[in-house]
Design a protein that fits this description.
The complex is a heterodimer. Chain A is an alpha/beta fold. Chain A has a single domain, classed as P-loop containing nucleotide triphosphate hydrolases (Rossmann fold, 3-Layer(aba) Sandwich), CATH 3.40.50. Helix content of chain A is about 35%, strand content about 25%. Chain A has a 6-stranded mixed β-sheet with strand order 6-7-8-3-9-10, sandwiched between helices. A 4-stranded antiparallel β-sheet of chain A has the order 2-1-4-5, with helices on one face. The radius of gyration of chain B is 19 Å and the shape is globular. Chain B has 9 helices and no strands. Classes of the chains: A alpha/beta, B mainly alpha. The complex binds adenosine-5'-diphosphate and magnesium ion (MG). The site of adenosine-5'-diphosphate has 11 residues of chain A, from strand 2 and helix 1.
């Protein structure tokens, strides 16, 4: 099986702080891969390195067969990488429709009409400004915006954060649907159980290092580890298991 | 008295229209790139002198269009070579660089065209007064206001309805996210800078036709344009529009009653607005950006 994306030995810094200490992970084509870990583990930083916002200082990223390690974000997006950032980052001053006109993607099937068919709520609110939307609507808009790039790989950073349970279900349904569309997915989530239920592969990050990787079902079956991930304090994690385990 | 007041209000509106044109260009650049362009008045001068040089060949109408376009091209080159290095840096660097650039442009103009004033020749029919009682409103003054109105309307329509315009507005709040959506933000900033400089060049042509040209003419418009931005609210283009007209008219009206205070009134206005609304009249609530 080929990879949509392979990252090897990423070292990423914010100024002088060394955040990622050799992160390696891969997203298999057509699969959902989830990246888990407690707050501050470096998940967002990993994604930012992958999409070119905070380039890794060392290591190598191959996206759809191209070495994209030093590429600017817009070129990575043009390869077909959609990014749904943490906190959604929709444009509050623009209307829903205008938000959907910002993406400059490769050619493909996704159009604003198709987006409105998939998210009728966005069609209803197309003249409203981003700041007037509910959290759930903002998340839909952020996903829709990324889809308009006609992505082959969709990278989502905590899409269910702060949403009502019913809306969380919707978000996970969309993620599953993307996979059915043939889009590879890299999903960062705090919602551990649900992510593992939908994902094929899982990586666990702690202190800027991958401490576990393997099939999602295997991690889901390990109740102690799942509880540690959901409980989410550093001491819990360190008490629960050896820090580095072989990949599954 | 009424006529004097009318004269000065008209005057104020015309001056305000210049402030608006200058301030909108400055605002575009500040909003998207965070660069405070002290050389903006220099680009106005370049526009004016280019119009002077082009009028013999192209006539006034040709120069009116081509001179601002050429000014924008010069702006594009300056952006690629110099301004681009300022992005993401402390604003102090942009102050130093653009301040130096302003002096270079002023001296360069003086070197090429001399220090004495030069005229931009305007078609005769534009110089006729409207009527005997409204002798102070020449066709040219109305024409200037009309050109400014068209330019401002075009800018707002472009920002509202074109993809590039929408991306510029998105970028003023979150350029990083715009870049992850496949937009080459380096190019977006260049284009936006050139658009701002086009407006400066246009101001230069219009000002040249009314007041004639001299190498220092841009400097006097710069400070009021900054004040227009602050009064209107940084980040809001409609605010800049309102701010420019407001301080223009305020200066005009004050000229009737306290001629000596007409320059100071814009500072007073700024102080009052900032006391009542620290973000300016339309700061944060702006309709466009
Ligand atoms: N812009 C930044 N500058 C400096 N340090 C940062 C910045 N963003 C995040 N960090 C630090 O990097 C570490 C990893 O953060 P992050 O990648 O956001 O973690 P996660 O997404 O897993 O919660 C944290 O210790 C955080 O404090
Ligand atoms: Mg995060």
């Amino acid at each position: 099986m080929t990879d949509a994306l392979t990252a090897a030995g990423l070292h990423t810094f914010y100024g002088k702080s060394h955040i990622l200490h050799g992160v390696s992970l891969n997203v298999a084509e057509g699969m959902i891969t989830t990246l888990l870990g407690r707050n501050g583990a470096g998940k967002t930083t990993t994604l930012r390195s992958l999409v070119g916002l905070t380039p890794a200082r060392e290591g190598r990223i191959v996206t759809f067969g191209q070495d994209t390690t030093r590429w600017p974000p817009f070129r990575i997006a043009a390869l077909g990488v959609g990014y749904v950032p943490e906190g959604r980052r929709i444009f509050p001053n623009l209307t829903v429709e205008e938000n959907l006109k910002v993406p400059n993607g490769r050619a493909g099937d996704w159009s604003i009409e198709r987006i409105y068919a998939l998210f009728p709520r966005l069609a209803e609110r197309k003249s409203n400004r981003g700041r007037q939307l509910s959290g759930g609507e903002q998340e839909m808009l952020a996903i829709a915006r990324a889809l308009l790039l006609n992505p082959r790989l969709l990278i989502l950073d905590e899409p269910s954060q702060g949403l009502a349970p019913r809306v969380v279900q919707e978000v996970f349904a969309i993620v599953a649907r993307m996979r059915a569309e043939g889009i590879s997915v890299l999903l960062v989530e705090q919602n551990v159980r649900q992510s593992l239920a939908v994902a094929d592969h899982a990586f666990v990050l702690d202190d800027g290092m991958v401490v576990w990787s393997g099939p999602a079902v295997e991690l889901a079956a390990d109740e102690t580890r799942v509880r540690t991930l959901t409980g989410a304090t550093a001491e819990d994690w360190e008490g629960a298991a050896p820090r580095v385990l072989p990949a599954g | 008295m009424t006529q004097l007041l009318l004269f000065n209000v008209t005057n104020g509106l015309i001056i305000g229209a210049f402030y608006v044109l200058m301030a909108l260009g400055l605002s575009l650049i500040i909003n998207l790139s965070g660069v405070i362009n002290f050389a903006h008045g220099g680009f106005l001068v370049i526009g004016g002198y280019l119009a002077y040089a082009l009028t013999p060949a192209l006539g006034f109408w040709g120069a009116l269009l081509v001179a601002p376009l050429l000014t924008a091209v010069i702006g594009l080159v300056v952006e690629r070579l110099l301004i681009r290095r300022l992005y993401g840096r402390d604003p102090l660097y942009s102050l130093l660089l653009t301040f130096g650039l302003a002096f270079m442009i002023e001296d360069g103009t003086r070197f090429i065209w001399g220090a004495q004033g030069l005229p931009v020749t305007v078609p005769d029919f534009l110089n006729q007064p409207l009527s005997a009682s409204l002798f102070f409103i020449t066709g040219y003054r109305l024409f200037m206001v009309a050109v400014v109105a068209v330019a401002v309307a075009a800018l707002f329509l472009l920002l509202r309805y074109t993809r590039v315009g929408i991306r510029i507005r998105a970028g003023t709040l979150d350029l990083e996210t715009v870049s992850t959506l496949g937009v080459n933000v380096g190019r977006l900033r260049s284009l936006n800078f050139a658009a701002g400089i086009f407006l400066a060049g246009l101001s230069g042509v219009l000002a040249g036709g009314q007041l004639g040209l001299d190498p220092t003419m841009g400097a006097g418009l710069l400070m009021p344009s900054f004040i227009a931005i602050i009064v209107g609210g940084v980040g809001s283009l409609p605010g800049t529009l309102v701010g420019g007209l407001l301080i223009g008219v305020a200066a005009g009206v004050t000229a009737v009653f306290f001629p000596s205070a007409s320059d100071a009134v814009m500072y007073v206005l700024m102080a009052v607005v900032l006391l009542l609304r620290p973000r300016g009249l339309m700061g944060e609530e702006g309709l466009m950006t």
